[in-house]
Automatic annotation (TrEMBL):
Residues 13-76 form the RNA polymerase sigma-70 region domain. Residues 184-285 form the DUF6596 domain. SUPFAM superfamilies: Sigma2 domain of RNA polymerase sigma factors, Sigma3 and sigma4 domains of RNA polymerase sigma factors. This is RNA polymerase subunit sigma. It comes from Mycovorax composti.
Length: 411
């Protein structure tokens, strides 16, 4: 059985945003700080109570009961609330706290509704995603900055402006019509995509895989595919991508918390049930003519799960389309890896060195791989440069392992 110190961080990641979403239905999103304070106080109380009295039989239910009682306390005693918020609520339907509002279904609905509420067009798409990642996914400033290849200071200012615009707009969690949902869905999908990516390949934590983030992103995307208004081909393609990628998670790390490169993975550890689920959602995604980036990435992930002789050709073709649809340095480098598989390492080196991406650790890691067995001195140089530039402890260890192999002549 887990200790409170082990369980609480997991529950905080899983329940904090949901709890905030439920509380916001009472306060209104313009008073989101109040909701966040109550949710934080609830977890603080658990951190004090559980080590002394033990973990309750139903810890999640315990947390929501405490949050609900704290909400009642606010209604009764908090002077700030009485002076500033209550007058507005007296004329609304939000002052009651019906018992049924705290059941599992309500919590899930509130969380999904809050995602769409935060992804409000009053802000730019980038600001919507930043806000959703911070409020709903618990991302730190550094994690958001990395996702946007930006500086934490820039993200901080962006978040402050975004919160202010939401307050000024006086928005709340309300039922959205089909048109409003369709306008916001792309941003919601992008948010879930980034949430999954942070779990699949984190560079800001001591472990590269954060399975709880992957699971949360998949759970929320599944909710979208189960709702008739959000069950779109793009949502199904994104879920297919997540299933394919997650199928390889058990094979991606060794017992020393080091990354196992794709070609060295034990395919017997791949989760076949998730691959089958990926097939299902990819078929669902083909309804209609839409081809999103999620379709292309799901296709790439699909071919990675096969042993088909032509798979690298297929993967390269999909990367060619993806680069045209949404250019990014990482996509270009991944395409060049596939290019080396289809043609040869020497031809890929020529293409890669034209990029001259001097501050990108993935650029040097790719060149280290390409030069291996062609010019090992250059391979060592590029791996060393990649290690210098990488911010991930786990990635540095993986690159160090490649260096040792080269120096030992076991490449």
């Amino acid at each position: 059985m887990k200790s409170p110190q082990e369980l609480l961080p997991h529950l905080f990641r899983q329940e904090y945003a949901k709890m905030t979403a439920v509380l916001c239905r009472h306060f209104g999103l313009q008073h989101i700080e109040l909701a966040e304070d109550i949710a934080s106080d609830t977890f603080l109380k658990a951190s004090e109570h559980w080590p002394v009295h033990g973990i309750p039989k139903h810890p999640v239910a315990w947390l929501y009961t405490v949050a609900k009682n704290k909400l009642k306390d606010y209604y009764k005693h908090l002077s700030v609330f009485e002076q500033k918020v209550k007058p507005a609520l007296l004329n609304s339907e939000q002052k009651a706290i019906p018992e049924q509002e705290w059941d599992h279904r309500y919590i899930e609905d509130s969380f999904l509704a809050m995602i769409f509420a935060v992804c409000n067009p009053v802000n730019t798409p980038e600001s919507q995603i930043c806000l959703a990642l911070q409020i709903l996914c618990g991302f730190s400033m550094e994690e958001i900055a990395r996702a946007f290849l930006s500086k934490p200071e820039t993200i901080k200012k962006r978040l402050q402006r975004a919160r202010q615009y939401l307050r000024n707009d006086g928005f709340n969690i309300v039922a959205l019509d089909r048109t409003a949902i369709q306008k916001r869905l792309n941003t919601v999908l992008k948010t879930l995509y980034l949430l999954y990516n942070e779990g699949y390949y984190s560079v800001t934590h001591d472990t590269q895989i954060r399975a709880e983030l992957c699971s949360e992103a998949m759970r929320l995307t599944l909710l979208l595919t189960e709702n008739r208004l959000t069950n779109t081909p793009a949502a199904n393609a994104l879920l297919a991508l997540m299933c394919y990628q997650s199928s390889r998670l058990p094979a991606r790390m060794n017992e020393h918390n080091e990354t196992i490169l794709f070609e060295e993975q034990d395919v017997r550890l791949w989760d076949q049930s998730l691959i089958q689920r990926g097939h299902y959602y990819l078929i669902q995604a083909t309804e209609g003519a839409e081809v999103s980036k999620y379709h292309l990435e799901a296709g790439i992930a699909y071919w990675h799960t096969t042993t088909d002789a032509s798979k690298w050709n297929r993967i390269l073709q999909l990367y060619n389309q993806l680069v045209l649809l949404e250019y990014s340095p990482i996509t270009v480098l991944n395409r060049l890896f596939a290019y080396s598989k289809v043609y040869c390492k020497k031809m890929a080196i020529e293409e890669t060195e034209r990029l001259e991406s001097s501050e990108n650790n993935y650029y040097y890691a790719l060149l280290g791989y390409l030069y291996t067995d062609i010019d090992n001195e250059k391979a060592v140089y590029h791996y060393e440069r990649a290690i210098q530039l990488s911010r991930s402890v786990v990635e540095k260890r993986t690159l160090q392992r490649q260096l040792v192999k080269l120096r030992d002549g076991n490449s």
